[in-house]
Design a protein that fits this description.
It is built from 4 helices and 4 strands; from the N terminus they run ββαββααα. By secondary structure, the chain is of the alpha+beta class. The protein has a 4-stranded antiparallel beta sheet with strand order 2-1-3-4.
Length: 124
C-alpha cells in the first residue's frame, strides 16, 4: 500500500451511521443509525481495494464494504466506501448503539499527535 502521505486525506462527516468502540475491542465499528460521525476519507488506488478487503476481513465474513454518504469540509456531498460489520459480526460481538454512547474512538485517536496536528477538524 501507499506511504503515509496525508495529501489525499481529508476530514469528512459520515451520515446515517454511528461509530462505536466497545470496551475491550481493538477497533471501532460503524453501525447504521440516524447519527453521524467525523472520520478521515482517503484515496485508495483501485488495484489496492481487494487487498484492503482482505485486511478488513471481507472474505472471512467479518466486515463488508459499502458505499456511504459523506459530507466534505466544504459542505459538498459525496460518497465513499466504508467497512461495516456483517450481521454475523454484529450478533457474535453483541454490537449495539448502546455499546458506546460517547464515541470512545475519538478519545483513542486523540492520543496520536500526528492525527491531532494534521486533522484538527476531526475533533470539532
Amino acid at each position: 500500500m501507499k506511504d503515509n502521505n496525508t495529501s489525499d486525506v481529508e476530514v469528512c462527516t459520515v451520515n446515517n451511521f454511528t461509530r462505536i468502540y466497545p470496551k475491550g475491542s481493538w477497533f471501532p465499528y460503524a453501525l447504521k443509525s440516524a447519527g453521524s460521525f467525523k472520520a478521515l476519507k482517503f484515496a485508495i488506488p483501485k488495484e489496492e481495494i481487494k487487498l484492503l478487503d482482505e485486511i478488513e476481513g471481507v472474505d472471512s465474513g467479518l466486515f463488508k464494504r459499502v458505499m456511504v454518504d459523506i459530507l466534505l469540509k466544504n459542505n459538498q456531498s459525496s460518497s465513499a466506501f466504508m467497512y461495516i460489520p456483517t450481521e454475523e459480526t454484529i450478533v457474535s460481538q453483541k454490537l449495539t448503539l448502546e455499546s458506546d454512547k460517547i464515541d470512545r474512538w475519538k478519545e483513542e485517536i486523540k492520543k496520536i499527535p500526528e492525527i491531532v496536528r494534521n486533522f484538527p477538524d476531526l475533533f470539532t
